[in-house]
Amino acid sequence: MAGENLDNHVDVKNILLEMGTYFQVQDDCLDCFGDPEIIGTDIEDFKCSWLVVKGMEICNEEKKKLLHENYGKPDPANEAQVKALYNDLNLQGVFADYESKTYEKLITSIEDHPSKAVLKSFLAKIYKRQK
One Pfam family of this protein, by short name (predicted)? Predict the structure, then answer.
């Protein structure tokens, strides 16, 4: 590492952390809205997913109450209530906006990096994945 620019290592760390966050947010959305054959259990398991956090940020008091009453319950009716609330809040659209902005931010960060080919390859593997 003698003679290397250490700023490049900091930059790649920041890029990879941003990619990791994007991957997790994407995973939370796929867990709820993805293929019904492989859908997860974040809602019934009371996980602190991006969807519930974002939902709590943007919903009014009445909807927060509905979320509190139904989130983390094993009954499919409660899960359906939460998913209906997510749809009312257009969380898929909120995610699409987040995804687009994050992708553009990552591409901009990657463009000037010496390891851009590898970083672009990583991003291509996760961008708009379906599983």
Answer: polyprenyl_synt
What would the two tokens of residue 50 be? 């991006």
Q: Give Cα 89 distance to the centre of its chain.
A: 16
Sole residue written with tokens 């390891």: 115
CA dihedral 31, 37, 43, 47 (to 10 degrees): -50
Task: Count the Cβ atoms, other than its own, within 10 Å of residue 42.
Answer: 22
Give φ, ψ of 49 to 5 degrees. Answer: -85, 165
Question: Residues 113, 118, 119, 121: what is their CA dihedral angle, to the nearest 10 degrees?
Answer: 140
Three-class SS state of 118: helix
Mean pLDDT computed over 6-16:
77
- Residue-range domains of the chain with CATH: 6-126 (1.10.600.10)
The residue to which tokens 């998913």 are assigned:
83
Mean predicted lDDT score pLDDT of the chain: 92
Across 1-5, 19-23, 26-30, 105-109, least confident range: 1-5
